[in-house]
Structures are given as structure tokens and as C-alpha cells.
Amino acid sequence: MANYEYIRVEAKDQLGLVMLNRPNVLNALNRQMVSEIIRALESFEQNEQIRVMVIYGNGRAFAAGADIDEMAADNPVSLELLNQFAEWDRFTLLKKPVICAVHGFALGGGFELALACDLLFAAEDAKFGFPEVNLGVMPGAGGTQRLTKLIGKTRALEWLWSGEMRDAEDACREGIVNKLFPKEVLLDETMKYAQMLANKPPLSVRLIKESVSKALDYSLYEGMQFERKNFYLLFASEDQKEGMNAFMEKRKANFKGQ
Amino acid sequence: MHLWKKERPILRVNKGGVWMFDTILYEVRDHVAWITMNRPQSLNAFNSKMKEEITKSIKQAANDIEVRAIVITGTGRAFSSGQDLQDVEADTDYGELIRKYYNPMIRQIASTEKPIIAAVNGTAAGAGMSLALACDFRLASSKASFLEAFIHVGLVPDSGNFYYLPRMVGHAKAMELAVLGEKISAETAKEIGLVTKVISIENWDEEVAIFAQRLASMPTKTIGLIKRYMYQSWESNLYEMLEKEAYAQKIAGQTLDHKEGIAAFLEKRKPHFQGE
């Protein structure tokens, strides 16, 4: 497995785990770290054994934001040429499910990382927010877009303008967080869920993700056409035959991902 | 986007170090943190500083792994007489005052997963009563009294009083106490369920210490879980609570103290809990 400086990566049976590992700065994201995260996910994406990916943080927080030192001296031209946010676009190309387990802080870039994942599980002590406004900037890695698509324009504006931190229960009520767990069992329960998802027919899981993602960008009509094609496509899979046969024969299906 | 100027280690609580406060005394003895409000000349009335220092000291006790129980008490005749009215100006915005000073204090008590005892040595009036209510246990000296004083200056109860009081004594009794504003004795407070134990003045210090010691030798992590889920029960329906109990028991079942408890039971000896 590749060498990473700021993350730790582990393949555990069918699960691909990425642990953010700069605990002494509450896992503040620097450019190299973001690059490592996306490379690790892409490598799991290509690994046939891996069916579900999980991101979580080591230490007291998930990720308390981006490394300010790194960008304090930047100017528009240097940022344009560096094009650092392009790496974030690669998240949208991942076809396998990515689950994020958040404890402690998920702020700024850390919150954007969490929002880039498909499912978000949080410890009851988790806190979410975009403090960028207080530094005279704004989210740059999808925060204004993903948050708005999730909770709507007015609520997104209110939150982004205030720069305030909200607790996990609020985030759950807003529909950002899927499930809340006591902090002690967050990882355990996330892994259990990830394993449950890994046992589902991978092609179905994959095409459902693709179709749901399209629902955010397409008109309803276009989305329905897209969905239909994916539905038809699954009938080319062995898992469809196995799944339907098992149902008729009243036995448990054995899915192979083919 | 955030906070970090440069990489640096997170500062740790200075364990066993001396912590200086102006309005309170703070001391850790035998796994118990003693927080003593120390403005006897004003009956331990809350000025801004004292509220901040109480919050800070509880946070410190919460983060100190040596601490397994916390006692809040007062020097002199009173536990606390509530808001220091000399600290209030004609144009004081009470909403801001509460948000800035009282609410963080009450939130800190509620979120600290260690047992917190209010050792009510004398009068607990107004926000002083609220502070006592927010603790997990109340011990009262025989000369202690409780007073919902707010009404006497035309104010409503605050600092969690509206939350805790009806939950502890029931709606009807809470209305009676908050609206009529009559002082109740330690004995009466015991009768209506506000107080765990009334202790005579002669034995006060000793018995409070014994009670605190007793809690400090119990399975601390588990007490913290009981506190957490007792709070959550107010916000949950039965089915949610059943699910939460399953998590809580899963967590408690992984503690060393659970293993010790089982071992002690099988070996027919007294358990020795570490708090983890």
C-alpha cells in the first residue's frame, strides 16, 4: 500500500478505511492531506476486494478545518495556477459508497470533506460549521453548493453567514447527518453499517448511488430516463438473477458483484 | 478553514498544579474536586467573575482523570444568594447576561459526565438555587434553605430552573415555589424530593466528604453514562430509550469496572473500581 504521511489507510475485508491522522492539529487539512485522502479512496475504488469506504478522524476531532498557514499568503493567480480544489472534484467520480464518521469538530474543509461523502454518521458530541466568513473568505471546496443542495437556500445562507458551530443533533434534524451514535460506539456502529452495505449486491449499490447523484443535477424527466437505463442495466448482472432466484426459492442470496 | 496558526501540541490540563481563582477555592483531594464559592461578604452572590470561574473549574475537574466526583459548596452563611444585584446596571440586557455567564455554567454541569454534588451549606436563593438544581445530588445542611427569589424582584426563574424544578417536584409544586416565592427549609426540601440528605451542622463537613468519597469510589464512567441517559430520557420516547439503553449497556459492558464488578462477585469480595 502506498505511503501516506497524514492519513492511515487499512483494507479490512471488504471495507476500505481512511483515518485522518494529524491529531495534534485536530486533523486540519493541508493540501497534501487532501491529495492523500483522494488517492487512497481512488485506490480502494480500483481494489476489487473493497466494497465500501469509511473516513474517520484520529484524536479529538474529525477535522477542524484547513491549514491557514498554507494559504495565508496566496493570491488569486497563485490559487488559479495551483488549482488545489480540482482534487475535490474527484470525489464525485467515486462510484463505491463512502461513509464518513464524524466525532468532535467538522469545521470548514473538514465539514466539506464530510459533505463530500455519501453518508454521514456522527457522534453525539460532534460539531459542524463553516467559520470561513469570520476570516474574510468563504468555503471553496463545495461547502456552499453541497450544503445548499442538502438543506435549501435560506437555511444554508443563515448558517454560512453566521459562521456558527452547530451540534450533531441540529445537523441530524437538518438532514445532514444520517445517524447519531454515542461517541464511544460511533466507529463500531459505522463499521457494522458499512459491513451491512458491503453485503448488498455491489452493482445495485453502485448504480443507486449514480442515479441518486443525478437527481441533484438533472430535471425530474431526465433523471427518470437515467434511472430507467440503470435499472435495465442491472438485468445484465449475475446478481440480479441470483437475487430474484433466491427470492423465489425462499433462500438467502449470495451476491458476487458481477 | 480554521484556527491553527501553526502545528502545535494541544495543551493539557495541568494535573495536580495550582489553579488560582479569585472568587472560588478549587482543590482536588482523594479524587474529589471541591469547588467552594468564596464571596462570603456578599453571601456568595454571583458576579460575572464567579460564574466564569465556576464554569472553568468544573471544566477543569471534568478533564482531570484523577477527579471522580465534584462538590460545589460555599463559604460562610450562604450557599449562594443568586445574582449579585450590585453587578447589574439599569440598562443591563438580562438575556445577554444569562447567555454569556449563566447558561455556559449550567451546560458545563449538565455535560460533565461525573457526579456533581451541591453541598448546600446555607441559603440557596435565585440563581443559587438554580445552581443547586443543576447538580446531580443535593446535600443540605440543617440550616440550609431554598428560595425561588426571582419573583420578589419581578423576574422569572433562570439558569435551568425552569427545566429542573418541574421535573424534580412536579408542575404544581414548581408553580407554587416559583410564583409564591416562599422560603423552604432543608427538611421540606427533602420531603418534596429536592434533597438527598439533610445533615446536621455538627457533622456537615465530615458527612459531605463521606458522601463525595463514596461516589468517587464508584464506577465513574458508568455514573457518567447514567447521567447522560437520565438526561436523554426527558427527550426520548420509550422505543428510542430502549435503543439508547442498548448502546449505554454496550458501553458500560466494556468498562474495566464492569469486569472488576463481575470478578469481585465471583470471588466473593468487595469490588475495587477504577472509574474506567
TrEMBL record, chain A:
<protein>
    <submittedName>
        <fullName>Enoyl-CoA hydratase</fullName>
        <ecNumber>4.2.1.17</ecNumber>
    </submittedName>
</protein>
<dbReference type="GO" id="GO:0006635">
    <property type="term" value="P:fatty acid beta-oxidation"/>
</dbReference>
<dbReference type="InterPro" id="IPR001753">
    <property type="entry name" value="Enoyl-CoA_hydra/iso"/>
</dbReference>
<dbReference type="GO" id="GO:0004300">
    <property type="term" value="F:enoyl-CoA hydratase activity"/>
</dbReference>
<dbReference type="Pfam" id="PF00378">
    <property type="entry name" value="ECH_1"/>
</dbReference>
<dbReference type="InterPro" id="IPR014748">
    <property type="entry name" value="Enoyl-CoA_hydra_C"/>
</dbReference>
<keyword id="KW-0456">Lyase</keyword>
<dbReference type="InterPro" id="IPR029045">
    <property type="entry name" value="ClpP/crotonase-like_dom_sf"/>
</dbReference>
<comment type="similarity">
    <text>Belongs to the enoyl-CoA hydratase/isomerase family.</text>
</comment>
